[in-house]
Write a structure and sequence with these properties.
With 219 residues, this protein is α+β, with helices and mostly antiparallel strands. The chain is 47% helix and 17% strand. A hairpin with a 2-residue loop joins strand 5 and strand 6.
Length: 219
């Protein structure tokens, strides 16, 4: 337990802790029957999804949401159970996301019910522009896009500055705009200001005349 505590402190202090590390620690806390710590770590992982500098895999997201469901089930938190199942179905509604026998019968039944409800409400996610994008860890390729269930989704895309990550509630078809081209726009106000040009001839004569007067010479 002491070793887990040190790892948790290190992850907690990171600017953007790795989701996979947090989920692993949360499952360990859950198996140690520390439900308070498991829930805190799961919430921290969910909050960190929007700043991840790497592509988070679909499996990691499922592990996070199934952890949420298990903790909520143990605490008899019906609302949290429903939310976790809905998120799990949103990120993987196909048979690949169906929970195995390791998951209790109640959670398997809830997954099937939510999945059936969403079967006719699928939405399509596509990309616009040149570059790579991922929806819940699945690579978006071509113009066909991917069909997903409505709900919370992790959208990650390439930019000139690296990978951007954001969590969005998607209820309709959605286009992810991507671009890996460096911006040609100036990056500071100083760069946008025009450089002063040479003074006009009239202004030069006026300045010269003024200097002559100040020296006492004749105009």
């Amino acid at each position: 337990m002491l070793g887990l505590w040190w790892m948790v402190q290190a992850a907690w202090g990171a600017p953007c802790p790795d989701v996979g590390v947090l989920v692993t620690q949360a499952w360990r806390a859950y198996h140690d029957a520390d439900l308070v710590l498991a829930r805190r770590l799961a919430n921290r992982a969910a909050s960190a999804l929007g700043c991840q500098p790497r592509v988070v895999s679909n499996t990691e997201l499922l592990e996070l949401y199934w952890l949420d469901a298990h903790v909520a089930l143990t605490l008899d938190d019906s609302l949290a159970i429903d939310q976790a199942i809905q998120r799990a179905v949103a990120v993987q509604h196909t048979e690949e996301g169906r929970p195995g026998n390791m998951v209790g019968s109640r959670l398997r039944h809830l997954w099937s019910r939510v999945r059936d409800d969403q079967a006719e409400q699928l939405i399509t996610i596509r990309t616009q522009g040149q570059g790579s994008a991922w929806i819940d860890g699945r690579h978006l390729t071509g113009s066909e896009g991917l069909q997903v269930a409505p709900g919370l989704h992790l959208i990650q895309s390439e930019t000139p500055d690296g990978l951007t990550s954001r969590v969005r509630l998607l209820e309709h078809d959605y286009d992810v705009r991507v671009s890996t081209a460096a911006s040609t726009e100036p990056t500071s106000p100083e760069a946008t200001s025009s450089q002063p040009g040479p003074p006009s001839k009239g202004r030069s004569r006026r300045k010269k005349r003024k200097r002559n007067r100040s020296d006492g010479s004749a105009p």
